[in-house]
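INTERNAL AUDIT FORM
Audit reference: QA-55
Scope: verify that the stored structure record matches its stored sequence.
Auditor: D.O.
Record contents follow.
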Amino acid sequence: MRKRMTQFLDLLELNWKKCPWIREQSPEFMLSELEKEVEEVRAELKSGDKKKLEHELGDIGWDYFNLLVLAERKKGVKMKDVFLGLMKKVRHRKPYLFKKGKVSTDEAVKIWKKQKKKE
């Protein structure tokens, strides 16, 4: 999976180097594209077509990462900081991931809510 993620990021970088269309877009435009893809995923979840669902989930990923790049280039957001913040949030809200043993679904939800309130 790590190899595929590296290949994906290489493709994303190539897209930004060589595709003039993407560089002309705004974060707001890319967000609207992402919202459309979310609706398409919703439809494919209902349809039960695995291949179409995979395709639409890929489209969400593509639009999301392009939105991140646009936010970085046009809004001053740092992609690195987005991911660091996300990891910090998950570690804070799911501390049981780093402990031995298991938690029930109910416990996981309670911990998530409790940790979120602390924020």
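Auditor finding: record pair retrieved intact. The mean pLDDT is 96.
Action required: none
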